[in-house]
Design goal:
Helix content is 54%, strand content 7%. The protein has 200 residues and is of the alpha+beta class. The chain folds into two domains: 74 residues, Glutaredoxin (3-Layer(aba) Sandwich); 104 residues, Glutathione S-transferase Yfyf (Class Pi), Chain A, domain 2 (Up-down Bundle). It has a four-stranded mixed β-sheet with strand order 2-1-3-4, covered by helices on one side. α1 links the parallel β1 and β2. α4 packs antiparallel against α5 and α4 packs parallel to α6. The radius of gyration is 17 Å and the shape is globular. The two termini are 28 Å apart. 36% of the residues are buried. The model has no long low-confidence stretch (mean pLDDT 97). The site of glutathione (GSH) has 13 residues, from α3 and α4. The site of glutathione has 13 residues, from α3 and α4.
Length: 200
């Protein structure tokens, strides 16, 4: 399997962490891709031009981290990162969606910073920042507590680490010490420790 991957993407990181947790890392070939440079190979795999994208040995392409993670979860039995019980599954996927929403808002904030000053929107920046702060408060009031982290937990760790990486100025943990402590535990797990983004 070939994974189009950027080391700074929280979505690509989520897929790679899932592959490591599932014992699938040896079957995963990492193809570095910088989406903003518009590589044709990435566009062939994902017409949207986004990472991650997964190309299977038979040529099928799977796009979007949520779908890729679901596919990877079906490939080995243990551990199940998406619960099979219906209610637990919806809870897990809801937490994943909220975590991805943190990553979405933070990524938009990153892109906004790259725009020339006159094109930047203070209103949108405030909206994205508020969404991140509300979601952080939500998770801080509902600290995950599972012996085996599930996909929602992995998504949350990748999203918060991305906020740290790109937007340390937000100081998201000022009112969320329990979530900060939880993140430290998650980042010590092999999958997350192996996928730390570069320092620049
Ligand atoms: N919902 C997608 C989001 C993927 C995404 O936005 N990736 C970013 C990198 S962090 C990207 O490739 N952006 C390029 C673009 O938006 O054109 C997923 O979960 O995979």
């Amino acid at each position: 399997m070939n994974l189009f991957y950027s080391p700074t993407s929280p979505y690509a990181r989520k897929c790679r962490v899932v592959a490591i947790e599932k014992g699938l890392a040896p079957q995963l070939r990492i193809i570095p891709a910088s989406p903003m440079s518009n590589p044709p190979e990435l566009h062939a795999a994902n017409p949207l031009g986004k990472v991650p994208a997964l190309v299977l040995p038979d040529g099928r392409c799977i796009v979007d981290s949520r779908v890729i993670c679901e596919y990877l979860d079906t490939q080995t039995a243990d551990p199940h990162l998406i619960p099979t019980d219906a209610a637990a599954r919806i809870d897990c996927r809801t937490r994943e969606a909220l975590a991805d929403g943190i990553a979405d808002a933070a990524f938009q904030r990153t892109m906004e910073r790259l725009r020339p000053e006159p094109q930047r929107s203070t209103d949108w920046n405030t909206r994205w920042t508020s969404a991140i702060r509300r979601a952080v408060a939500h998770f801080n009031a509902n600290i995950p507590d599972r012996p085996q982290p599930d996909l929602g937990d992995i998504a949350l760790a990748c999203a918060l680490a991305y906020v740290d990486f790109r937007h340390a100025d937000l100081g998201w943990d000022a009112d969320a010490p329990a979530l900060r402590a939880w993140l430290a535990t998650m980042l010590a797990r092999p999958g997350l420790a192996e996928t730390t983004p570069p320092s620049t």
